Each structure stands twice: as structure tokens, then as C-alpha cells.
Amino acid sequence: MKNLYTIINKPLFTEKGSNLKESQNKILVEVSRDANKVDIKRSIEEIFKVKVEKVATIKVHGKWKKQGKSIGKRCDRKKAVITLKKGEKLDFIEGT
């Protein structure tokens, strides 16, 4: 069993994420790359004490970057869109 606190890396504050939160009660977070939907759902429910209806995951491949002669690649990451049940609320800024 994985540690619940290592599954969720950080919340993502983007325009798309804030629109999803306001209109559809969904939250956008970055999770560890080896986490699955069941682990993500369990960690969100136990850490923040909210009920999760659905979890969707997205793999984001790192971009190739070039600076002068050197070429490098950014890290791959994984995002999760979490749908909360009706009546549930979670706000990372206010802490509720």
C-alpha cells in the first residue's frame, strides 16, 4: 500500500481548472506517475474528508527544450481531474 500523502503532489491553479471547479465541481491536481484511480480517490477522500464521485487521469509528456547547444527534456507528469459528489466542496486556497 502506498502512502496517501505521496500520491497527491500539488493542486494545479489554471484557467481551465478554475472553470471546471466553478461550473462542474471538479478539481485538478498533479499526482505521482505510478498512482492509479483507486489510490487517488482513496487519498483525496481520507486527506480532505470529501466524497469523490469520479476520477479521470491524464498523462502529460515532457517537452523537449533547447538552450544554446544543449538539449534536454522536461519530466513527464500525470494529472487527475476529480469530480466531487453533489454538495461537497473543496477549496485549496481557503482550506475548506
| CATH homologous superfamily (4th level) name | RRM (RNA recognition motif) domain
CATH topology: Alpha-Beta Plaits
Number of helices: 3
Instruction: State the assembly state of the protein chains.
Output: single chain
Class based on secondary structure composition and strand pairing: alpha+beta
- Name of the CATH first level: Alpha Beta
What's the structural blueprint in terms of helices and strands?
Blueprint: H1 4-7, E1 8-11, H2 15-24, E2 26-31, H3 37-48, E3 52-60, E4 64-67, E5 70-73, E6 77-84
Antiparallel strand pairs: 1-2, 2-6, 3-6, 4-5
Give your account of this protein's structure.
By secondary structure, this protein is α+β, with helices and mostly antiparallel strands. The protein has one domain (4-84): RRM (RNA recognition motif) domain (Alpha-Beta Plaits), CATH 3.30.70. It is 27% helix and 36% strand. The protein contains 3 helices and 6 strands; from the N terminus they run αβαβαββββ. A 4-stranded antiparallel β-sheet has the order 1-2-6-3. A two-stranded antiparallel sheet has the order 4-5. It is globular. The mean pLDDT is 91.
